Amino acid sequence: MEAPVVRARRDNSLWLTEEQTDHMRLSLKVSDIIFQKTTPWQKILIVDTPEYGRTLVLDGAIQLTERDEFCYSEMMAHVPICAHPRPARVLIVGGGDGAILREVLRHPEVETCTLVDIDMEVIEASKKYLPTVGCELENPGADVRCMDALEYIRTTDERFDVAIVDSTDPVDFAAGLFQAPFYRDIKNILNPDGMMVELTESPFADTALMRQAVRQMRSVFPIVHLYWGAVPTYPTGMWTYAAASLAPDPTTPLRDVPGTRYYTGAIHRAAFALPPFLSELIDAQSH
Amino acid sequence: MEAPVVRARRDNSLWLTEEQTDHMRLSLKVSDIIFQKTTPWQKILIVDTPEYGRTLVLDGAIQLTERDEFCYSEMMAHVPICAHPRPARVLIVGGGDGAILREVLRHPEVETCTLVDIDMEVIEASKKYLPTVGCELENPGADVRCMDALEYIRTTDERFDVAIVDSTDPVDFAAGLFQAPFYRDIKNILNPDGMMVELTESPFADTALMRQAVRQMRSVFPIVHLYWGAVPTYPTGMWTYAAASLAPDPTTPLRDVPGTRYYTGAIHRAAFALPPFLSELIDAQSH
Question: Based on the domain organization, do B227 and B268 belong to the same domain?
Fold first, then answer.
């Protein structure tokens, strides 16, 4: 007897679509919706995706996925920390998901890491639903504060060796984080050999932001270098970062960090080699 | 008198969607359809997109866009040619659009460049509709042949210094281009200090192909190195290439090439610095 013909059932087709620009969209199939909440600051969405695993979305923009966040987190954390001679005190602006904090705490040289994020709900959701990401948010070496980072920076008496600015995209309350007044406030809370890094978006999708951030950083800090790497789920997959320093050379790693999946000393040096189209974008005169 | 209220007209919303994997899609807004044709080999589509300019699509996969093809074309052409001591004779397998040919012909050391593509319609469409890409297809230094490259390689008496394998994705008639018998055929038409490069897909989207290609290449060539770069419109934006050599070191550039937008000697060296997750993928034992 032949087996009965069974029509294959179709899966429910649920897709997360990010409008990366007005003319470009990335869509990921969704297998489960894990968490949704609208806070005073943003809309939080956590979903499971077959392509990239668990995925955190804020206001429609993918912030991180379990499968590729190491590309971003490691390049934000290890480049400034490995290039700093004594990275004892580190500040993370934003970064409530805890991914960069986790990387910072790999360094035995780091004595305290202060994380200031405006939205407690992101911190709580990451601890609960993104265990590989939020795993260090209760580490005793982490000083996690829920408040407006701009206000914290203007009022604190603390001083830092490294500041890592892990903001959302430069819209709404995060827009001020890419301008000279903010960079001056950061400079004021850095020690004399301090260093900062900040994401500066994609050179294909948001050229204007990248140029503005670098130009304004250069008006405040004596040493500013752009570097880049791959982050598959960010627009265009080619992602840039700016490192600004009061003294140490951000392009040269001084020590190693074990257990990384993207970062190495060779990758650190390589990331500062810019394709000509990219160096021309930041060096050209602009309006 | 107040101006009359005019409802903004909506644009026609036409999108090109590539199913990059079963669970991930990239969509580009389309402003115009320029050319469509089904050949014995594939479906050709050329569209204009606001995000990336004119775009060539074969069988649903984006092959190149005017705005980002230099990332891919330069890394395919200049890495092997700049690392070869005497790159007089170059072979391009596939590449009928002419983008890599254009880059190869920048090198005064190259005496002839033979391009063998199975589909004359791609060559003709590129000359006509992609002028910045197909511009050198009638250059007297280019020997453009329309035939099955596998057959050409098995039967030709010509010998080459550099072979560049610019195939479509490893399905259908291109699947054989990522296996040891093909690499042996390529080796047979290389001079004793010959070198080849081939695209090996994304380490996030097609890990299996990348591992297979590198493993089979290593069974044929004494020197095989993976390198990588950004190509925004290819799946995940992080793209890998394999360089196989009979003698010269592919990782070391011997000369410069003017007028590039992605490639430099520093980028050449940097591209061989692999993130640990990537080197582990190709060095691990696999089935």
Answer: yes
H-only helix segments in A99-206: 99-104, 120-129, 149-155, 180-188
> Which tens digits make up the pLDDT trace of A215-249?
999 999 999 999 999 999 999 999 999 999 999 99
Residue B7 has pLDDT above 90, yes or no: no
Do both B95 and B39 map to the same domain?
no
Q: At B198, which CATH number?
A: 3.40.50.150
Interface of B with A (CB under 8 A): 15, 17, 21-29, 49-51, 67-68, 70-71, 202, 204, 228, 230, 232, 236-238, 260-264, 266-267, 269-271, 273-277
One domain for residues B80 and B58:
no
- pLDDT for the residue numbered A8: 65
pLDDT of residue B3: 60
Q: Residue B51: list chain A partners with CB under 8 A.
A: 21, 23-24
Closest by Cβ to B260, choosing from A15, A204, A276: A276
Q: Kindly provide the residue ranges of all beta strands, DSSP E only, lying in chain B, ordered along the sequence.
A: 15-21, 24-29, 32-38, 43-49, 53-58, 61-65, 89-94, 112-117, 142-146, 160-166, 190-199, 223-230, 238-245
Mean pLDDT for all residues in chain A: 94
Q: What is the CA radius of gyration of chain B?
A: 20
What is the pTM (predicted TM-score) of this model? Answer: 0.94
Examine residue B10 and state whether it is found in any structural domain, yes or no. Answer: no
Q: Are residues B28 and B99 in the same domain?
A: no
Among A11, A12, A24, pick the best mutation site for testing chain B contact (most B Cβ within 10 A).
Answer: A24
Is there a single domain that holds both residue A83 and residue A172? yes
Min CA distance, A229 vs chain B (Å)?
8
The domain of A31 spans 15-65
Percent of chain B with pLDDT over 90: 88
**B201 and B251 fall within a common domain:** yes
For residues A102 and A37, membership in a common domain is answered with no
Number of CB pairs < 8 Å for A and B?
Answer: 110
Which residue in A15, A27, A207 has the most chain B C-beta atoms within 10 A of its own C-beta, making it the best mutation to test that interface?
A27
Cβ–Cβ below 8 Å for A276 and B269? no
Our CA angle for B35, B41, B47, nearest 5°, is: 20
Split into its structural domains, chain A has a count of: 2
